[in-house]
Amino acid sequence: MILSKTTPAFGVLLVNLGTPDTPTTKDVRSFLKQFLSDPRVVDLNPLIWKPILNGVILNFRPSKVAKLYQSIWWDEGSPLMVVSQRQREQLTSMLAQEFGQSIPVELGMTYGTPSLTSGLDKLKSQGAKRIIILPLYPQYSCSTVAAVSDAIATEFKGWREVPETRMNKEYYQHPGYISALASSVKSHWEQHGQADRLLMSFHGIPVRYVTEGDPYQQHCEKTSELLAKELGLNQDQWQLCYQSIFGKEEWLTPQTDKTLISLPAQGVKSVDIISPAFAADCLETLEELSIGGKETFINAGGERYECIPCLNTNPAHMALLVTLVKQQSQGWC
Ligand SMILES: C=CC1=C(C)c2cc3[nH]c(cc4nc(cc5[nH]c(cc1n2)c(C)c5CCC(=O)O)C(CCC(=O)O)=C4C)c(C)c3C=C
Ligand SMILES: [Fe+2]
Ligand SMILES: [Fe+2]
After folding, report:
1. Which letter does DSSP use for residue 239 in this model?
2. For ligand 1, what atom is nearest to the CA of residue 19?
3. Where on this chain does Fe(2+) bind (predicted)?
């Protein structure tokens, strides 16, 4: 039997950061090694950084972080991976419905597996000559989106025929993103009641990246203002902060941890916390915010602390991803 192979109008590469294959010290070490060796993530002089990374960080951090991963690992695997796979499956069927034809969607992680290379290879083998790169980072940062762009450019160096590509650079103020966040907060309030304050906690980056031109902080501020407006919150009902500080450099402030410690003394006894920079629940939300953040706030005298899940496969989030693909594919169908 001869199978007729039709060329898809385009393919989609769904991108996220990546995660270790298993929550073991060995796999966490190899993930951290690849991640923290990327100059887009840590841009220090390699002569200074490599000895610190190999001699200190990769000796002590992996076993500590492996334990944290073990505390949030799911039966099916790392939460970030499991959610990403579900997003891929759902987006595939939604795009088939939307476009009336099969549009291949593959997953590519900047670090770890499945790699960006394997995602691009799978799209190539399905005949995709046009590719939409969709990094699931609403706010642009050189440490995330530019890292994707670098890795893809490097990959294409080895290809004879390079596909036509379009990359969705950011969606921090997209109406579909803001309304997906707002409906997630509202449904949380319907179930649990509204806390004294809504904290919007974004992954931090070094201040120097911002002073050197990274628009990330500006994007986080805009997302927060738009979300607060959509929810009808006034100034003292919400607050922006930055989590996941790493290393000795000065990072964006106010820090989530320090904010949580300071709130009970100001009379803020209940907090809802949302992490709009993450499209999928991961170590940083399930451990650092849900477990660590709660402990910090309660120990400081707080009474009620609730973490709002990431958008994950919420229908409004999946509909946003379809809209982003439609916008990027203008003229391709
Ligand atoms: C210099 C270090 C780091 C920068 C800059 C950074 C930016 C950044 N990261 C994310 C998203 C995620 N980061 C995650 C984990 C993580 N991040 C760093 C360091 C930097 N991140 C480390 C060392 C780790 C690993 C855990 C640890 O050792 O503490 C994750 C979670 C992955 C998972 O497996 O669940 C995500 C997602 C963004 C969006 C961002 C810049 C905006
Ligand atoms: Fe990170
Ligand atoms: Fe962290």
Report:
1. E
2. 34
3. 203, 284
164-167 vs 197-203, strand pairing mode: unpaired
Atom of ligand 1 nearest to the CA of 65: 28
Pick the CATH number of 175-307 from 1.10.260.40, 3.30.160.270, 3.40.50.2000, 3.40.50.1400: 3.40.50.1400
Question: 136 by DSSP, 3-state: which?
Answer: coil
11-17+78-172+315-328 and 175-307 in the same fold = yes
Inter-CA distances, 14 with 81, 120, 131, 167, Å: 12, 10, 10, 10
Residue type, 290: S
DSSP 206: B
Kindly indicate whether the domain formed by 11-17+78-172+315-328 is annotated with CATH number 3.40.50.1400: yes
Instruction: List the chain domain ranges.
Output: 11-17+78-172+315-328, 25-72, 175-307
Per-position pLDDT tens, the chain of length 333: 444 468 999 999 999 999 999 999 999 999 999 999 999 999 999 999 999 999 999 999 999 999 999 999 999 999 999 999 999 999 999 999 999 999 999 999 999 999 999 999 999 999 999 999 999 999 999 999 999 999 999 999 999 999 999 999 999 999 999 999 999 999 999 999 999 999 999 999 999 999 999 999 999 999 999 999 999 999 999 999 999 999 999 999 999 999 999 999 999 999 999 999 999 999 999 999 999 999 999 999 999 999 999 999 999 999 999 999 999 999 998
Q: How far is the CA of 194 from the centre of ligand 2 (A)?
A: 29
At position 233, the amino acid (one-letter code) is L
Contact criterion met (CB below 8 Å) for 15 and 134:
yes
- Contact between 8 and 128 under an 8 Å Cβ cutoff? The reply is yes
Is the minimum distance from the CB of 284 to ligand 1 under 6 angstroms? yes
